[in-house]
Amino acid sequence: MFFFVTKAAEIQSLRQTISAELGASVSLQCSAPEKMSLVYWYKQSVGKKPQLLVTVPKYGSVEFYGEFKDNPRFMVARNSGIASLSISNTIPSDTAVYYCAEFNAGIMSFGEGILLILQDAEYGHHTILQKPMSYQGRQGDSVNFQCTIHTNVSHGDHRVYWFRHGSGESHPGIIYTHGNRSDECEKSSETDSPTQSCVYKLPKRNLSLSDAGTYYCAVAACGQILFGNGSNLKVEVIPLWYIFKVLNFLKALSFCFSQSTVRRIISFSIH
C-alpha cells in the first residue's frame, strides 16, 4: 500500500492513472501556475518511502537526485502552467505513484499523485473496453458501468476487479470483484477462433457525491493485472431551485387534489 500525507494544493495532476506497455515512453503532467517558483517531483514505489526525484525552478537549472541523477531516461519541462515529467524506455521499477509538489511559506503541498502502471506486452492477451467513458449525473441518479474483455480461451481463467479512484486519493481502491466466472463469457461465432468476449457490469444506484471518481475495470491473468482506460463519474449537487420547484409542484398537486375531493363530496351530498 501507499502511505503519503498530502495537503490540498493549487498544483494538481492532470491524470491520476496512466497505463502503458514496458519499454514505452510516458509523460506525467501537473498544473503548475506561473507564480510557483519551484516544483518538486517525488516517486513512491510499493512499500517504500517517497524519493525526491527532481526539482524544477521557474528560472534556472533543473536538479535531479539520487539514482535519477545523470539518467537520460528522465526529462522534465515546465511550460504554460504545466509541469511535465517524461520517462522513456520504461522498465518494471518505474511502476509507482508520482507526486508533484510545491513549497510555499514553509509548507510542502502535494497534488493527488499519478499512478503509473506498466504492463508486459508478452502477456497482453486481453483487451479491455470500458463504457461509458464518462458520465455526469445528479444525486439520486443511477448508472451502469460496463467492461468488455476480449481474451484467448487458451490462456486460462481470469479474475475481474473494479477500482475507484476518488479525487484527493493517492491511488485507486478496490470496490468489487467478480471472481472466476465463465457465465459472462461468450465464445466467438467463428468456428476456428480461440477468442471469447466477457461482459462484466457494475451498477451504481442512488448516486451521492462520494461516488464521484474514476472507475477502472481490471483483469488479473498470467500473473499480471491489466487496467482499462477508466470511466469518469461526476456527480452534481441537486440545485436548490430545482428542489423548490418540485416542492411547489407537489404542494400545488396536493391543493388540486384536496379541492377536487371537496367538490366530489359536495356533489355527492346534493345528489
UniProtKB/TrEMBL annotation:
GO terms for cellular component: plasma membrane. Keywords: Cell membrane, Disulfide bond, Glycoprotein, Immunity, Membrane, Signal. Its main location: membrane. CDD domains: IgV. GO terms for biological process: immune system process; response to bacterium. Residues 9-100, 126-219 form the Ig-like domain. SUPFAM superfamilies: Immunoglobulin. It is found in: Cell membrane. Coiled coil: none annotated. InterPro entries: Ig-like_dom, Ig-like_dom_sf, Ig-like_fold, Ig_sub, Ig_V-set, TCR_complex_component. This is Ig-like domain-containing protein. It comes from Pygocentrus nattereri.
